[in-house]
Design goal:
Helix content is about 55%, strand content about 10%. Strands 1, 2, 3 and 4 form a 4-stranded antiparallel beta sheet that branches. With about 500 residues, the protein is α+β, with helices and mostly antiparallel strands. The protein contains 17 helices and 4 strands. α1 (about 10-55) packs antiparallel against α3 and α5 (about 145-190) packs across α9 (about 260-270). It folds into 2 domains: about 10-130 and about 450-495, no CATH class; about 145-440, no CATH class. The chain has helices spanning about 10-55, 60-65, 80-95, 125-145, 145-190, 195-200, 205-215, 220, 260-270, 285-295, 300-325, 325-340, 345-370, 395-400, 415-420, 425-440, 470-480; strands at about 70, 110-125, 455-465, 485-495.
């Protein structure tokens, strides 16, 4: 039986049609590949950003819950170009996957090459008075504090405002009383000498002790026998006092207002030590006191805080004295003994007022003494919580040396620091807190060159790429179509929030 062998035949028309169809398919594939390559460029830029910002300063995060990249990489020499070189190296690595394969055996559908990379803008942790630091701190607190805690912070704030009002009222009354006493003392001196000799008051005047104590050092009165740190820093060591690098990128802040300010202050109390803290590290020991006082030594900052605590307590204590019937009666009786011989009722009234003011001052000194000793003092006094009597006001120096008894109920030194923070500018506190962050981290081994104005928190980059053809080579071979490279410019960026 014979065999039939078919001969393969293809027509010229079919050949041309096949070429056209193949070229169309390749052109379509190339178009899709180019679109995919553009998307891949965006992905590679994101990976580059994540890689750069993944190298955040770990101690800054561990100690303060703040993300930032040291733009000097530990050298102390800040350079945006150094950061750009890092970014560029990550881009090149991710753009050429075949370089990581053994023998380079890998099909790369994108066929990309990086031509240029440059950082257009960058933001630093110290920019705008530390706004980014404030934003990150508030964001951390919002994630960790419960709603009931926020309610308590509002109550603390209202207590602070109330105490400030009472303090101002006390200062007005004291100023008025001092003027009255000066004028009446002049009148008193004009009385006849014999009248004075005949009518000397038998009672001792406790205001003499108050005047004596007022001439002494406050720390000597409220910290007798207590060790006070002698640490100090120079102005050139403080970020807030020196010239700094400034970023060119403005990051939008998402947090503002009273709630955010209260959370930020609570963050400060959680992350910085104070006079009574057991663990103290860094160039200064009393760091919350520094945030409040802004002085260059622990001693100066403690004095600043003590003075303000004293003023706050004077306002609240005078309010109590002025409205307590028994205390008013006692002050009036003593005033009559001291000045009744003059026959000037107005002088008796002025002396009574001065005694109440002095009494409030003496109680306030005792309050601060108790607070610095680790005790508690209630915001509003009661008969049970009042310590200094009018009889022992004249020996207040001895009482201060012995120290007062702490109350079971009341507010601690820590609570009063919160009140002082609530009465201050958040802007100043933010700048000063960056001072402490910088100094504290510089004291850690390996971080002596750390500076907050080297810490990058956001960048915006511009990259230029070349997409080399793959599938267009077929069309070029058969039809002579163009297979030129495609140049692409892309913008990208990243910022910590």
């Amino acid at each position: 039986m014979g065999r039939y062998r078919a001969k393969g035949v293809i027509t010229v028309f079919f050949s041309l049609t096949s070429v056209l169809i193949l070229s169309l398919i390749c052109t379509t594939l190339e178009s899709a590949r180019i679109q995919g390559a553009r998307a891949q460029i965006a992905n590679i830029a994101d990976m580059g950003n994540y890689s750069v910002f993944g190298e955040y300063e770990k101690k800054l995060l561990e100690n303060y819950e703040v993300f930032a990249v040291d733009g000097s990489y530990g050298t102390g020499d800040f350079s945006v170009e150094r950061v750009n070189d890092k970014f560029k190296s990550y881009l090149q690595r991710n753009a050429s996957p075949k370089d990581a394969m053994p023998g380079g055996l890998c099909f790369d559908p994108w066929n990309l090459s990086l031509d240029e990379s440059s950082i257009q803008e960058y933001a630093l942790l110290s920019d705008r008075g530390g706004e980014v630091f404030y934003q990150q701190a508030v964001a951390y607190m919002k994630k960790t504090i419960v709603f009931a805690g926020v309610e308590r912070l509002y109550q603390y704030y209202h207590d602070a405002v109330n105490m400030k009002t009472r303090q101002e009222e006390y200062e007005r009354n004291k100023s008025s009383s001092d003027q009255e006493m000066e004028e009446l003392e002049k009148q008193e001196k004009e009385k006849k000498k014999e009248l004075k000799e005949q009518s000397k008051a038998k009672a001792s005047n406790p205001l003499k002790m108050i005047k004596k104590l007022a001439r002494k050092s406050l720390l000597e009165l409220v910290c007798p026998g207590m060790d006070v740190s002698d640490k100090k820093v120079s102005g050139k060591e403080l970020c807030s006092k020196r010239s700094k690098n400034k970023g060119t990128m403005k990051l939008d802040g998402g947090y503002s207002g009273l709630t955010s300010d209260l959370l930020f202050r609570e963050y400060l109390l959680d992350h910085f030590p104070n006079y009574l803290s057991k663990e103290k590290e860094g160039k200064l020991d009393y760091q919350i006191e520094y945030l409040i006082g802004g002085k260059k030594s622990d001693k100066e900052n403690l004095i600043w805080v003590v003075r303000r605590l004293l003023l706050l307590r004077e306002g609240m204590n005078y309010l109590y004295c002025a409205h307590d019937g028994e205390m008013n009666a006692a002050a009036e009786s003593l005033a009559a003994l001291l000045t009744g011989w003059t026959g000037l009722p107005v002088l008796v009234t002025a002396m009574k007022h001065a005694l109440l003011l002095g009494w409030a001052y003496g109680e306030s000194l005792m309050d601060v003494r108790i607070l610095l000793g680790g005790g508690k003092v209630p915001l509003a006094k009661t008969p049970e919580s009042w310590v200094v009597t009018l009889d022992n006001l004249g020996r207040l120096d001895a009482l201060l040396k012995n120290g007062g008894d702490s109350h079971k109920e009341g507010n601690s030194y820590f609570d009063y620091l919160r009140i002082l923070l609530n009465l201050q500018s958040v802007s100043d506190q933010t700048k000063r807190s960056l001072d402490m962050v910088e100094l504290n981290l510089q004291s850690i081994a390996g971080l002596s060159n750390f500076r907050v104005d080297h810490c990058i928190v956001g960048i915006r980059e511009k990259t230029e790429w070349t997409i080399r053809p793959i599938f267009m080579r077929v069309s070029a071979a058969f039809l002579g179509a163009s297979q030129s490279d495609i140049c692409v410019t892309a913008d990208s960026g990243f910022a910590y929030h």
